[in-house]
Automatic annotation (TrEMBL):
Protein name per its UniProtKB record: Multiple sugar transport system permease protein/putative aldouronate transport system permease protein
Chaperone keyword on record: no
GO term, biological process aspect, one: transmembrane transport
Predominant location category: membrane
PROSITE patterns linked to this entry: ABC_TM1
PANTHER family: ABC TRANSPORTER PERMEASE PROTEIN MG189-RELATED-RELATED (PTHR43744), POLYGALACTURONAN_RHAMNOGALACTURONAN TRANSPORT SYSTEM PERMEASE PROTEIN YTCP (PTHR43744:SF9)
Protein species of origin: Cohnella phaseoli
Entry keywords, A to Z: Cell membrane, Membrane, Sugar transport, Transmembrane, Transmembrane helix, Transport
Record family assignment: Belongs to the binding-protein-dependent transport system permease family.
Length: 296
């Protein structure tokens, strides 16, 4: 009976070194989150004494119970959620509508090279912070959700990524659609968008994370604290335990609560939405980046 040969490669020292390096990088990414969770679940005395590293000391839910009573936190959370929905939706729409015609060749879209030059120019050069603020102010968008959405409505990097992905699609798809009587809109909605899901999911993830994590625009464009998005609210946290409570139970809870624990709990809660969204888009991420960034 003939033996079946198996081609197995022996692991080398380089393989072990690379595996060790990847494990260390993974631990370096997880460690801050783990420490934040441990601090949020630890007792005040342990946190203030610097005894908490990666395991909660004197486990308690006081920080999270305090968050449930914080109306400002939930108001900021709602502002960020509204910003993500509007911002990511508008960016998706404008990115597709701009990338689709630019994916055509110069023969199909006359003046394409002029538009490309203009787009690349805006990506490399900006007017500066003060002109940007003055434009937003002159449009009357200060202290409104649109100030957080409209100024970044056309992310040029995302447009180029989707454009290159569409340009790499087989020409036979477009030719067959034209033969069947499809017009430009039908071609976009029924063929290009379904086929370009990896690239579109990737840029959507970029948009969601960028809008959710940004605190600077809220700090500059919002003068009223009730209009702050969540990250701006978190950034503004200093020692803010409300000691004006009249309820004895709440005073007792505040006495047991460290500001470090409370802030750590709020930071961890802000991470949860991204952690929930990311796994659903992860499978498109590498594919969309690879095919959308190689060619022009």
């Amino acid at each position: 009976m003939q033996a079946i040969s198996t081609n197995t490669r022996k692991l080398t020292i380089t393989d072990y070194l690379l595996a060790t390096l990847l494990v260390l990088i993974t631990l370096a990414c997880i460690a801050p989150i783990w420490h934040t969770v441990a601090v949020s679940l630890s007792d005040k005395s342990a946190v203030e004494g610097g005894k908490v590293l990666f395991v909660p000391v004197d486990f308690t839910w006081n920080a999270y119970l305090k968050i449930l009573d914080d109306a400002k936190f939930f108001r900021a959370f709602a502002v960020s959620l509204e910003r993500v929905v509007l911002g990511a939706g508008i960016q998706f729409l404008l990115t597709v509508l701009m990338a689709y015609p630019l994916s055509m060749n110069a023969r199909e879209f006359k003046g394409r090279n002029v538009y490309m030059w203009f787009i690349v120019f805006t990506m490399l050069f900006g007017g500066g912070l003060i002109p940007w603020y003055l434009v937003v102010k002159s449009l009357g968008m200060l202290n409104s959700i649109w100030a957080l959405v409209i100024p970044g409505a056309v992310p040029v990097f995302n447009v180029i990524l989707v454009m290159n992905f569409m340009r790499n699609l087989p020409k036979e798809l477009k030719e067959a659609a034209y033969i069947d009587g499809s017009g430009p809109w039908h071609l976009l909605l029924r063929i290009y968008i379904p086929v370009a899901v990896p690239a579109l999911a990737t840029v959507t993830l970029f948009s969601i994370v960028a809008h959710w994590n940004d605190f600077f625009q809220g700090l500059i464009l919002m003068s009223k604290p009730e209009n702050y998005p969540l990250q701006t609210y978190i950034q503004q946290l200093v020692v803010q335990l409300d000691l004006n409570e009249t309820d004895s139970d709440k005073l007792e809870q505040a006495a047991k609560l460290s500001n470090k624990s409370l802030n750590a709990a709020k930071i961890f809660v802000t991470i949860i939405p991204v952690l929930l969204v990311y796994p659903f888009l992860q499978r498109y991420f590498i594919h969309g980046i690879t095919l959308g960034s190689v060619k022009e």
